[in-house]
Specification:
The protein has 14 helices and twelve strands. The strands form two sheets. It has a six-stranded parallel sheet with strand order 2-1-3-4-5-11, with helices on both faces. A six-stranded mixed sheet has the order 7-6-8-9-10-12, sandwiched between helices. α9 packs parallel to α10. It is elongated, with a radius of gyration of 30 Å. The protein starts with 6 loop residues before the first helix and ends in an 11-residue tail after the last strand.
Length: 381
C-alpha cells in the first residue's frame, strides 16, 4: 500500500537533489544564475516574502517632521500652519514610501466611518454630477470617501444614517421642503438650496446668474423673453425668477403672463413647455431655461415646429456643463460654480463633524456667460 505523496513526489522531483548543469543554465536568464532554493516562490512555506508595512512614523522620519504633522497633512487639516515646502516634503515622503493610511485603525481610534453621504435628486442632471465631482475631490483630500445616492431625499437620508459621519443633500425635485425630517445625531448640510428651517446651506448666486443671462438677451435686442420655471416651489428657481424679473424691470420691459410657464425638470418637460410657448401669440423671441436637459427638449420642440435657433428663437441655459457645447446649435450658457459648491459643502460639513458652528454660505464667484451659437438678435417684426 503506497503512502500519500507530496506534490513534489507526484511530479517526480527530488526536493533535496542538486540541479544539473543544464537545469542551472535554464534557470539563469539574462546571465543570472540562481538556485531553485533561492527563489522565494519555491520556499517551503509556499508564500512570498512580504515587505513590512510603511508606518506614519516612517513618513515623519523621512520628511523630518512629527507624526502629528503627517497626520494633519493627510487629513487636510486647514488649521495646520506649516510652510508650503514642509507640506510638500510630507507629500513627497508619502509618495516615495508608498504610504497608505490604515483606514480601519483610524475608524477604531476616532469612532468614525470616514465616509460622507451626498443625496441628489437624480444622476441624469449634469449639474448634480458637477457638484458631486467637487465634493468627492475635497472628501478624498480629507481622507474620506463619498457615498452618493439619488431619489427621494427623506428615504435616502434614512438609508445613509449610521453609515456616514455627515450628510450633504439636495432635496429631490417634487419633495416639499417642510415634511423632510433630517436624521438626528448626524451633521447635515443643504447643497444648492436654502431653507432656513433645514439648517446650514451653501448656494451659488442664482439671482445674479439669471440677471446676467436675461441681460445678454436684452443686449441682443430681445424684448419678448420667456422663462421656463420648474413646477414645484424650489428656492433655487425662486431666486432665478427674481433675477430675470429684475433685469426685465431695469430695462423697462413688461412681463405678461404668456412669457412664463412651469414644467417638469427633465427633457420632456422642456419639450412640452417649449411647444406650448411657441403656440402662444405673440410668440417669444428668446427663452431662458434652467438646465441643459430642458434645452435638449426645447431644441427638439423647435425642430418639430420648424423654428430655427437662433434665427427665430434664442436660447440661454444655466449651468455650463460639457453637453451644452456639443448640442446643435451649441448652447449659450451661464456658468454656475457647481464644483466649487461641492468643495465648499464638504469643507463646511467637516467643520460640523468636528462640532464647529457654520453659517450659510453664498459663493461670491461672479456668473460668467459663454456665448455660443444658440443666441442672436431677434428676427425683424
Amino acid at each position: 500500500m503506497e503512502s500519500a505523496s507530496s506534490p513534489d513526489s507526484q511530479s517526480g522531483t527530488d526536493r533535496n537533489a542538486q540541479p544539473t548543469d543544464s537545469e542551472v543554465k535554464d534557470l539563469g536568464t539574462s546571465g543570472s544564475m540562481s538556485r531553485v532554493q533561492d527563489n522565494p516562490l519555491s520556499a517551503p512555506s509556499g508564500r512570498r516574502r512580504q515587505k513590512s508595512a510603511v508606518r506614519m512614523s516612517d513618513v515623519a522620519a523621512l520628511a523630518g517632521v512629527d507624526t502629528s504633522v503627517v497626520s494633519r497633512v493627510i487629513n487636510g487639516d486647514e488649521r495646520l500652519l506649516v510652510r508650503p515646502e514642509t507640506r510638500q516634503r510630507v507629500l513627497d515622503a508619502i509618495d516615495r514610501l508608498g504610504y497608505r493610511p490604515n483606514i480601519a485603525a483610524r475608524m477604531l481610534k476616532t469612532s468614525r466611518t470616514m465616509a460622507i453621504g451626498l443625496v441628489i435628486p437624480d444622476f441624469a442632471n449634469a449639474s448634480h454630477a458637477q457638484i458631486a465631482i467637487g465634493a468627492e475631490q475635497r472628501a478624498n483630500d480629507a481622507g474620506y470617501i463619498l457615498l452618493v445616492a439619488s431619489g427621494a431625499a427623506e428615504h435616502r437620508l434614512a438609508q445613509l444614517h449610521g453609515r456616514v459621519d455627515g450628510l450633504l443633500y439636495a432635496i429631490a425635485t417634487g419633495d416639499p421642503a417642510a415634511p423632510v425630517q433630517l436624521p438626528e445625531g448626524i451633521p447635515c448640510l443643504l447643497v444648492n438650496r436654502r431653507e432656513p428651517h433645514l439648517g446650514p446651506s451653501v448656494i451659488g448666486n442664482d439671482e445674479a446668474s439669471a440677471e446676467v443671462a436675461t441681460q445678454h438677451l436684452i443686449d441682443l435686442g430681445h424684448r419678448r423673453i420667456a422663462h421656463l420655471v420648474v413646477n414645484v416651489p424650489l428656492d433655487t428657481g425662486n431666486r432665478r425668477t427674481a433675477g430675470y424679473l429684475r433685469a426685465m424691470s431695469n430695462a423697462g420691459l413688461p412681463v405678461p403672463p404668456e412669457l412664463g410657464i412651469t414644467t417638469d425638470v427633465d427633457e420632456i418637460g422642456g419639450y412640452k413647455a417649449t411647444l406650448e410657448l411657441l403656440h402662444r401669440e405673440p410668440r417669444p423671441t428668446a427663452l431662458l431655461i434652467a438646465t441643459s436637459r430642458w434645452a435638449m427638449g426645447a431644441l427638439a420642440a423647435c425642430d418639430e415646429l420648424g423654428v430655427r435657433v437662433p434665427e427665430d428663437l434664442s436660447i440661454v441655459a444655466f449651468s455650463d456643463t460639457p453637453i451644452g457645447e456639443f448640442m446643435h446649435p451649441a448652447l449659450t450658457t451661464v456658468e454656475l460654480p457647481l464644483r466649487a459648491m461641492g468643495v465648499t459643502a464638504v469643507e463646511m460639513l467637516l467643520r460640523l463633524i468636528d462640532d464647529e458652528d457654520v453659517a450659510d454660505v453664498e459663493l461670491d464667484e461672479l456668473p460668467r456667460l459663454t456665448q455660443r451659437a444658440s443666441t442672436a438678435p431677434p428676427p425683424p417684426d
